[in-house]
Amino acid sequence: MKVPVSEVFNSYLRLLAKTMFLVGGGLAFALAFGSLLDKEAMLTLKDNVSEPLQVVISALIGFVAPGPRYIIYPVLAKLFEMGLNLAVIYALVVGHVLIEPSTAMLEAGFFGWRFPLKRFTVSLIITLAAAELMLLLEYAGWSFR
Amino acid sequence: MKMPKLPREMKIGIGIYVLAAILFCFSPQSVIEIFSGNIDLIVKILIFTAVAVAISVAISYLLPLSFVRKYLSESSLSNLIIAGTLGVATPGPIYAIYPIVLTLKSKGVSNPVLVAFITGQTILGPARIPFEMGLFGLDFMLYRLVTALVMAPLAGLLYIWFSKWLPDPDEAPGKSGA
Known about the structure:
heterodimer, A: mainly alpha, 7 helices, 0% strand, elongated, B: mainly alpha
């Protein structure tokens, strides 16, 4: 069945307007919250906390740290330079991209609060499992560097 | 005078803007500084969003309902693997994939399959592979890729498991078949 181009274009514009409204809000929230984060706090992890616990803390920080994905890479590169374990960096980057406050709110708006709640729990379990496995592999002599 | 009832997405959107405005008040930087410092990122996200909406509109017109019902509506392990792999291969920022997710949902795709797709898409996008490989090395990237392909269907399976205690209101009982 042939669909008129104008109909496709109109539905594109309707969905674009709706999505841009939400994306604009999410982006504003992420940028505002990101400007409040103290990046130096991350560095205290390295010297005072054991590595398996660093992984857990990094994953949790990643989850609550909002912001578009690319924002975190300069910080990660700096942490890597300072000698932080790659498993900790893994937990931070995966935790950061899997779920964040603004997307949790978006998902709650779209699907109801149970969806982001379960997705958050599931994401936390799989992030910790994969990051702790990476740490174990490193302890066993497998170098990821 | 009775106020018009706003749709749920609109209420959530307004809530996010209000929260952002409150956070901006506490920021040590001015709003202009924050936005001008992230202008490349903002432009990139807006462009990706426009592209993602185009993809989602294309999906809604091109993807037959019968195909979705047959292959993705049930939460079987094979569907979770397909959805997770599709997610890993799908480019774009997280905000931009929600139109695609909404379209899939409206086509009857189940929540665990959507979770596998979102997990695959968010955990690793094709655009970030060269970026992370350059910063952290090939081995790190390969571990990320392998775990992403395992974690996405695993997330769907865990979602099904958690749904036994906290079922989704719109998921029919017995639909999860993994």
